[in-house]
Amino acid sequence: MGLADPTTGSLPQPLIIWAVSDGRAGNAAPALGLAEAIATHRPARIIVKTIGWRGVLGRLPWFFNLFPRLSLVPGSAIEAPWPDIWIAAGRATLPLSMHLRRWSQARTLVVQLQDPRAPKSAFDLIIAPRHDQTQGANVFQITGSPHRVTAERLTTDAQRFAELIDPLPHPRLAVLIGGRSKAHDLSPARAQTMADDIRAATLQSGGSVMVTFSRRTPAPARDILSAGLGDLPGVIWDGTGDNPYFAFLAGADVILVTEDSINMATEAGATGKPVYILPMDGGRPKFARFHADLVRQGVARPFQGHLEAWQAVPLNETDRAAKAVLDRLGRISA
User: Fold this and answer.
1) Which residues contact 31 (CB under 8 A, 6 or more apart)?
2) What class, spelled out in words, does domain 151-302 have in CATH?
3) Domain segments of the chain as ranges
4) Residues contacting residue 313 through CB under 8 Å, at least 6 positions apart
């Protein structure tokens, strides 16, 4: 698995890491983020694999997919030679992850992100969010999810978008808006309250806003927030051109993120800047557990219509997960 030869002392060959998902941002980014974090500790070549299933197989439970490699759409490219580390995220990857140790003759470390809701013995390591309360000898719990926010990426994007962001007055509020999901919604009434509260806090502070929406943001809510915040100093990204998301995180003094997105809240927390959680319609206990964890660690606070000066604690869970993967790789390769 790319380990150094102890008899010769030769440098280790780069690890081959596959980051595997169905291509959806909520799955692709965590898999790639963890792979990139591993590569900061060990030389590695990262290969992104985006898979898809023929017919209805992608919507069925993993155990109905009896011959997964034969059922992939063209271009999925899941075939030998196998990587040193397989990092997969999302339900769509399970039929492959469940077979990978057999296909690779146990030479590949199989890492699955999130609770697979499948026999845990099929995986070498499961990186699961603490709020899902997944338990097991091969389960490593983290707060939130792995991500791609690093100091280097923030610096690079801050430089790319300097003309857009540098003139904005401080304090700068990065406002990350999600939208409709199984657990949450953003109704027009809620969007109006959100716009009013953010507007009041911005005017009181004398600062500016940097607003970005998700593909899940309902059009009425997007329109209401754009109208309510559009005349403030700042920028509202309209979805065209290069995405300034990382630049917003880099340039912000304070980050506001809607409570529907665990990924965005984790990314915001990784900056070490104060994070406020914006309430939405709906909710589930696991989200409440996640936000309580952020508050307990000093990463975030609920947004109650005003800004406070406080020193946030950076969330560094992706690096912690990367070290857990390398630790497990070393133990099974010894």
Assistant:
1) 19, 20, 21, 87, 88, 89, 113, 146
2) alpha beta
3) 15-143+318-333, 151-302
4) 272, 297, 298, 299
Whether 15-143+318-333 and 151-302 share one fold: the answer is yes
Spatial strand order in the sheet of 254-258: 234-236, 208-213, 172-177, 254-258, 275-278, 300-302
118: tokens are 């499948």
Query: Given the structure tokens 């397989």, which residue do they identify?
Result: 86
The whole-model pTM stands at 0.89
CB 145 within 8 A of CB 262: yes
| pLDDT tens track, the chain, 334 positions | 544 445 545 567 899 999 999 999 889 999 999 999 999 999 999 999 999 999 888 778 888 888 899 999 999 999 999 999 999 999 999 999 999 999 999 999 999 999 999 999 999 999 999 999 999 999 999 999 999 999 999 999 999 999 999 999 999 999 999 999 999 999 999 999 999 999 999 999 999 999 999 989 999 999 999 999 999 999 999 888 899 999 999 999 999 999 999 999 999 999 999 999 999 999 999 999 999 999 999 999 999 999 988 899 999 999 999 999 999 998 776 5
> Measuring CA to CA, which residue among 80, 129, 93, 128 is closest to residue 20?
93
Q: Tokens for 30, please give them.
A: 């965590």
- Are the beta carbons of 84 and 110 closer than 8 angstroms? no
Answer whether 153's CB lies under 8 Å from 168's CB: no
Q: Residue 308: how many CA atoms within 13 Å on its side-chain side?
A: 11
Decide which of 3.30.70, 3.40.50, 2.40.10, 1.10.357 is the CATH code for 15-143+318-333. Answer: 3.40.50
3-class SS string, 113-172: ECCCCCCHHHCCEEEEEHHHCCCCCCEEEECCCCCCCCHHHHHHHHHHCHHHHCCCCCCE
